[in-house]
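Usage

Read records sequentially. Each one opens with the input sequence:
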Amino acid sequence: MTRFWLCFVPLFVAVDAIGLLPLFLALTEGVKDRDLRRIILQSILTAAGVAIGFLVLGQAVLSLLGITVHDFMIAGGILLFGIAFSDILSSEKPQRAVDPESLGAVPLGVPLICGPAVLTTSLLLQQRYGYAPAGAAIMVNVALTGALLSLAPRIHRVLGKAGAKTVSKIASLLLAAIAVMMVRHGLTHFIAPGA
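and closes with the structure output:
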């Protein structure tokens, strides 16, 4: 159970479900309830499928390319830090023109729910704690995100715009700290392989 929680928390931070709420509300403004449920289901199925697929095949792809886990740790940490840094400094998450029919798959499922932060974090957690805890943590986080998105209008009313932004900035700060830890672990392997 401890391994599950060690996987769950970094993935929860990487997904940043609360930070997605304002963007989700903006993207789905004026969408009927029936269509909204379809969009949420499409987004969580897409995110779960991509994340689990990468969890299972990611290591094989890296091996095929000659990339070690420690290389990926350093590159992933730098990428995560860049994402977190950008989120901390920006006033709004970027918005893109979207097709209502595929809105749940792109951009909600990928890259907003399951983006580079989730893919990198899940692969590194799988290396550290195993497939089962990492896979379970992915599924619970995606399901939790789906639940939060279905409650988005109510949650946003409670938190308000400022509250949602504050929670998102705190999550980005935690993501930056996780990124630094990943780079540190990757570099430690090359500097002191036995450490």
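Summary fields computed downstream for this record:
- The chain has a mean pLDDT of 86.
- Helices lie at 2-15, 17-27, 33-65, 69-89, 104-113, 116-129, 131-150, 152-191.
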